[in-house]
Amino acid sequence: MEKKHFERPIIKKLQTGMPNKFGMKTEYEPISEIDGASVKELVANYGSPLYVMSENTIRETYREAYRAFSTRYPKVQFAWSYKTNYMNAICNIFHTEGSWAEVVSGFEYDKAINNGVPPSKILFNGPDKSEKDLEKAIKHGSYIHIDHFDELYTIINLTNKIKERPKVAIRVNMDCGIYPLWSRFGFNYENGEAWEAINRIMLSKKIDLVGLHCHIGTYILAPWAYGIAASKLADLAVAIEKKFNHYVKYIDMGGGFASKNTLKGAFLPGSDTCPTFDQYADAITTALINSPINHEHLPVLMLESGRSLIDDAGYLVGTVLANKRLPEGKLATIIDIGVNLLFTSFWYDHKVTPAQQFSHHTEDTIIYGPLCMNIDIIRENVQLPPMKKGDNIVISRIGAYNMTQWMQFITLRPNIVLIDSKSKAHVIRGNETPDNIMKNELVPEHLKKFEL
Amino acid sequence: MKLKKKIAVSETGFIFDPTTGDSFSLNPTAAEILNLLKDGKNEKEIKKEIMAEYDVDESTFERSFLDFMAMLRLYNMIEEHEEN
Fold first, then answer.
1. Mind listing the pLDDT tens digit for each residue in A112-164?
2. Is A5 on the interface with B (CB under 8 A)?
3. Looking at A131-135, A147-151, A331-335, B78-82, which range is the least confident one?
4. Which top CATH class is A33-52+312-431?
5. Domains of chain B
6. Fewer beta carbons below 10 Å: N end or C end of chain A?
7. Are A11 and B54 within 8 A, CB to CB?
8. Which residue from A169, A163, A166 is spatially nearest to A141, judged by alpha carbons?
9. ipTM, two decimals
10. Fold adopted by A55-310
11. What residues in A contact B23, CB-CB < 8 Å?
12. Contact yes or no for A425/A46 (Cβ under 8 A)
């Protein structure tokens, strides 16, 4: 007779008096496949931990966002936010969908060029552009989004030695009725600083003002705030037309749309509270179309969404290293994914799902990473079915920022694979080797020998 | 290592502790182990029965059993000293 499947024995105290009126179900549907690729096989072939990206999800999400905007506004252009995920294969998926590149450093600028993005389709943002970066961007005809007056004057000075006319936009910060107010980037709208910058650009006669840019924050749950921002940029565009008889080519609303991840401390899950692309699109396009901008000179609506386009497409697959019982009776599960690989676990309660079948019995679990550090906590409280050493888990919605803000700490960074539309896995960044890390290290001669 | 006599265990995996009024739920493996404990079986006997019935190796069973007993102790269900 075949023996029964053994599940670790668990006892759970039944709590009364705290019913969940929303009836949110505990996570006990396993994720055994990602886009048709078996999780167990992926781990066997590419190791654990393993980043897995879904090409299908990226394309579907992008098309959904593009549809939401392009059905409401005649001229829409997305620019892929490199800092959100600048794996070349990922960037190229967006480029094949028609996205330009939005970069925030010389390194990212070179990456976009190497990926084959025409320089005239690169938006160069950020507070740190060296004179060399600016010179390169001007010569190549990229769009430079000016962050501060020092940058503006550097560009004005560069026009004395470069024959190409710089194409610039200014980044504008403003009060959109939400908190926190991101005032550190760009020129302020309310105190007239943005208008001052525009005047200086226009009066210099050496620079082409082609756009107006804002980026009101991150994980913005209030679509109406974008409507206010779009109205304020439209007012600036109209003022430019009135005073200088000049039309800006584009209005760039930046990014900051929320993803379906759940922020720590949120009462409801992100999948319930995250606005749709249609809601953001409705707020922005309504504000632009209803603005006093001359309808024959409607600017292109530029969008730099990152997180909302890529978060859902990323998974981090890991393995249970150990279970231990904490003195207060709580179960601690240690997995091979630490905060070094999942930076976003500092602000999200990520969805953690076992990769194999389990019963409906669950335990309140704290998930620790493998780093020998107290802060290495992936989830502080999660109801999970019993798992044993060697079992696999899948962490969902990790596509944004984790592959750019990851840290090489006490261990090496793992493979990243992309699952294509035919369920085939492609390594898009190989796992690091000790040599990758140590080849740049130098030991002075007097420290090379020692006796212990 | 005996279950306290007053602890009521149902075959379907519910426990009631009349001294505290607390109720608990068990998964099927835990219910089976608890019923064996209630019948006065020791660890060796329980291991033999579970390993005969379930697809589990000795070390996995022992680790699980240790953890389960720790939880029973935490919930004060184990008779720490043999009654005279």
1. 999 999 999 999 999 999 999 999 999 999 999 999 999 999 999 999 999 99
2. yes
3. B78-82
4. mainly beta
5. 2-78 (1.10.10)
6. C
7. no
8. A166
9. 0.91
10. TIM Barrel (3.20.20)
11. 13-14
12. yes
